[in-house]
Amino acid sequence: WAAAAPGAGFSETKEFLEFFQKETLNPHAWEKKLWNLYDATVYAENLFQCPTVAYSGAVDRQKQAADIMSKYLEQEGLELTHILGPDTGHKYHPEAKTLIDQKINHIAEQGRNQIPSKIRFTTYTLRYNKMKWIELQGLEKHWDRARVHAEIKSDHELSIRTSNVTQLRIHMEAGLCPLDITKQPIISINNERLEVDRPETDLSWDVVLYHQKGQWKTAPETQEITIAKKHGLQGPIDDAFMDRFLMVGPSAWPMNPTVGDWVSNEMSHAMRHWRQQFRGRARFKMDHEITAKDIEESNLILWGDPSSNILIRKIVEKLPLKWNHQRVQTPDKNYPADRFLPVLVYPNPLNPDKYIVINSGFTYREYDYLNNARQVPKLPDWAILDLTNAPSPRWPAGIEQAGFFGEAWEWMGPED
User: Is the pTM of this model over 0.85?
Assistant: First the structure.
């Protein structure tokens, strides 16, 4: 992006829906955390890198979106350029449009600054992990705010301040590194001084820093290979639908009729509503048709239980819960298997670079189609469903418990 010119619309979920829909929201704890995936307000600091010219009609109710962004930008010490169309509703005022065009055209003429000397970056998830030459590769805790302030201080010195970050990469493509390749680079990160590798002769530079045992280091300590949350493999359930995926139906008898009926109905619902909402046709195969190439290339959306779906049966022992004909067992609690069903996202034990999802499509439902400010993930990394509560326009069943896995995809317990 060389520039942004937002007009009407919405910037976040809560205040927009309370203002426009007159809703009183009572979200679950995990829903509030998941707003941090979608709300532009909590990412306001990132506009430090993106020249922005906002517009509103002065009497347009959707001016609320720019007003709340202005409020959050002020908290970051930034002032929003906000052009108003006098006595104008939900449309561009001709004079304002001319002024916006002049500003945006001038910004575009300057082009993007690929290696700014200063970076300010906020994120809550490794799904959004890059800002210019900074890339986050590990967080202490997803859905809490992670921040990086980085500055090139001289031809061989950088200063970096971080919070909620365990691993970061400094990456500059060939021809872009402004450092003196004859000098030893020194990085001061959270007041720790590190000497790092020099840029190469093609003026590229690539450095990875690790925060372990309370210290920043240039190399990780030797440790057992384990799965960890990383970009594109960090959850929640809906994240599996951000990439190539394949619905996988069961071919055998279910553990019990209640689960079997629910799976059949919800699998059809997921495929039908993918078509209605995202305009594509979800690819589908039966479990016995899945090939090694499918496992290599696709996130697998597995429907059924360990009795009915071959792939669930193959991986169930490697999931962070136990599931058999009698019970669904988490580290916290046992649930009767004829009433309760797990849904979750997890690295595929058959290919840890891809997801498996068990028994879920995208997680917002019919009620949320009424306003796209509602169309945010509704479930976190896992949930236990109570099938005695019928599916509704809001939920696939009753939500008995739900929560997020930890940074190593370990069990962390329910969120509420």
Answer: yes
